[in-house]
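Section 5.1 Outputs to date
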Amino acid sequence: MSEPTSNFPVIRGRNIRFDANGLVCLTDIWRAAGFSKNQTPSQWQRLPFVTDLIVALLSRNMGKSHGSKISTKSIIYSNPGATGGTYADVRLGLSYAEYLNPKLALEVKEVFLRYKAADPTLADEVLERSSPEDNEWAGKRAMARAGRRPFTDTLQRHGVKLPQEYARCTDAVYIGLFRKTARDLKRAKQVTSSLRDAMDGVELTFVAAGEALARERIEQTSCNGPVACEAATLRSTSFLRDALEAERRDRLKLP
């Protein structure tokens, strides 16, 4: 599934896109304002005060870069095509919104501040207007994050340090639950990116429960070091797998 538009903040019913470098799409802000033909991003850029603003921002960024060359494209650029647009530094975006409409500028500022602060209520408001598919995708992502971070934090406190050590403990979760390593599961699901993005809600529930049980065992038995943490994780998740398989046999009346 492609990344849903619910990842972006919404202003007046319009998704406001950001690029990989955090530049905001001025074209989306223009659309949110109501498609005024005389106030497009390209026309706004020609105004003298905008040129001065861009120069000042470049100068400021150059001072922070310790002498390295700064390209104008680092703060504003345009992509052609129907799905393209003009992207700019957020400070330019706020200036553009104020140019379009002072009331819009306040809305944009409030949404941007909530977006930057990772306000969870903003995400909830966006998802309320999103499709069931996007809500399911976001729910899966949240479930994966909610269980993963406490598990890795517990591992760190108990002596797991190296990336390969974390990987072995993660494999212990998957082996204990599904009898397969992360690599085997990716191969079975035919994915090369995030495994948990490819899991369904039931699988993620099992993974979250398995990691929670493993955390408790590691803490309560005072495991120390990657070998002990890996063994504890495998043991806890294996017990969970046994319970799940017993429930399945009973449900299906299997021997």
